[in-house]
Each structure stands twice: as C-alpha cells, then as structure tokens.
Specification:
2 domains; two-stranded antiparallel sheet; twelve-stranded mixed beta sheet; alpha+beta; about 425 residues; elongated; 14 strands
Length: about 425
Amino acid sequence: MRLLLDIFAQTLRTLWAHKLRSFLTMFGIAWGVGSLLLLVGLGEGFRSGNRKQFDELGENVMFIWSGRAPALNGSFTGMRQYYLTYKDYLDILRDAPDVKAAAPVIMRDDVRAVSDFYQSSGRLMGVPAGYGEIRYLPLADGRFINRLDDEQKRAVVVLGDEALRLLFPGRPAVGSTILLNSVRFQVIGVIKRLGHGDNNVLNMRIFVPFNTMNENFRPLNVGGTQDAISMINYQPWSRDLHEASRLEVHKIIARNHGFDYRTLDGWDEWDTIKTVDTVGKIFDAMNLFLGSVGLVTLALGAIGIINIMLVAVADRTREIGLRKALGATNRSIMVQFFIEGAFLTLLSGGLGMAGAAALMAALGTLPQPPGFDTPKLVPATAALAIASLTLAGTVAGLYPARKAAQLEPVEALRRE
C-alpha cells in the first residue's frame, strides 16, 4: 500500500512538472469523451422529442381521408373525387378483422364559438365516445364525451387548452355554456395542453358528440354525398398488423366507392406506425454516425496519450537507468508508467463526461423547439465511453511502461 502511494505521489509530481504537456493530453481525451456523449445525447434528444410528438397523437393511430379514384375503373386518364361515409366506418368495423378500433370524424373550421367573455373560431370536431380510446386526449378537468352523449345527441362540448384560454380567460369552464353558430352547448370537459411552443393547432380543437355534429354541422363541400364524414381514425390490434389492417381498409373503401384497391393514387392517408419506424431508423443511423465521430475523436485522444507517454519514457531515460541501478525492479518501473497513463486517461475522461453532462443540463434550461427534447446522457454510450477509456488507459500505460521496464540500467545511464 505504501509503495502504491509513493508511486501515485511520484505520478502527480511528474504530471505537474510538465503541466502544459499534461493539459494538452488531457484536453484531447476529454474532448473526445465529451464529444461522444454530447453528440449521442443530442441525437437522443431529437429521438425523444419526436417520439413524444407521435405519442400525443395516440398509440398506433392510422388516418384515412377522402381521396380521388379513376373516373372509370381501370382508367388512369381521369380522376373523380370520392368522399368517405359513415357506411365505410361501419363496414370497417364489420369486415376488417385486423382493425381493433375505428372512429369516424366530422370536421368544420368555419363554426364560430362564443362565450360570455370572448369568441374563437377553432376547429370543431364531431367524434364518437370511443374516439378518446384511439387518440391521446388527457383531461385537465371534467370528462370526455360518452356513449349516451352521442346516442341522445346531447349539446355538450369538450374544449382544447387554447380554446379554453380564449373563451374563458382565467375562469373555470366546466358547467358553463358557449354558442356554436348560435346553438347553445354546455362545456363538460377540458383537455390538457398538447404539443410544444406556439403550435396551437391541437389545442384549438373543440369536440362535440358525432351525432350532434352530424345533425347541426354537416360536412361542407362533399358533393351531395349522404352521411359523408371527414376522416376515419383506426388502430390495428398490434403494430405488426398495420400493413394488413391498411390493406383491409383499402379493399373496403375501394369496394364501396367502385374502384380497384390497388390504385396507388386513390388514397389520402397517414400511417403513423410506418412513420415512427422510418424516423426510428433515421435516428439509429444518425446515432451510429455521431457515435462513430465521437469514437474516432476518442481514439485520437488515446493515441495522443500513448505518444506523450512514449515521449515521457524518452525524456526520463536517465532517471529510469538510475532507479534500476539503485535496485528498482522491472515491475516497479512498469507500474509507475502504467499508473501515469491510466490516471491521465481516467481523469481526463471523467472531466469530459462532467463537461458533457453540464452542457446538456444547461441546454435543458433553454426553451426547447418543437420535436426536440432535452439532451441527456445515454447509459449505453456512457458505458461504451468507460470501456473505451479503460482500453485506452491500459494501452497508453502498458506499452510505454513495458518499453521503460526493458531498458538496461547501463544503456539508460549512457543516453543523453
């Protein structure tokens, strides 16, 4: 134990005697470790932010809107507009075994909402009771639309957070009433704020029961189609079934509207599962690239330490010869230089980790743009950095240490 303390003290004196060289060496390895952790942390911040945005849509949600089909089946020269109907929704529930749940939606952007305090013109949406099970709609107060609200065509509304702020500034809304194009509705619930920053599209929505909406605010510009709806949200039973459920929905809608379901241009839809998988692959590639850049920088720092230790061996040749002449063993010489290399590597690596963590914490205090989350240390990357540091420290210490230990005392003392 005493010997180790003496060797450690000697290591500190040696590093202090060459302060500039030691600082530059430590800076190289600290920069490599910090870069690796920071780059991967930033990539993980983007991944986490995008994941949260998709989570706010709902789990495994798929959207389909009205589209355009060939004017004549099999023809590609002319296209006609078709509109989704309530029958399409019912047929999907009956004939699509891979679809777990579906919800028809009617949307209007021209309905003016008026309270006792202010007025607003957010998006009015008619949805069934099961809509809240498909889409992510966390309640801040009150309740969401239930089955009786829809069946009895009750005049009730649920407000988004921004609609609440505009219609009832600083006041409670649940139990109050608003006018929707002069029709009086009672507020039964308020949804928590969704999204980040100034993106208020999601928060400006106002929800009413589907049948109430269909009776009072039918969809516009649907060419006289009976029971037209704006879109259908649906969920597969599992992520793996999203392609199968999408194909089933295509077949049903194409059958109902008289065109071939294999018509690629006949669909206006969004498969969030496919989008999430694609984005995940992009972020995996980005993390791999950023991690590779960080590892290269880390490797350059390790090479710098090996080089510096070799220089130290050359500079201290006479010292090594004198110590061996006085009885120092090859093992003690080897331990001395190994500890110097390992200490330099681990200290600079620790400083790099601390610097990266401090910078990420500082970034976390700033306003985060949409789609970006606070960068954070990734445990797997930190473990990789520690393993790389251990390897670098071992190589940086052992090779020069072995070289120093193999010097013959007489030859070492003769060198200038």
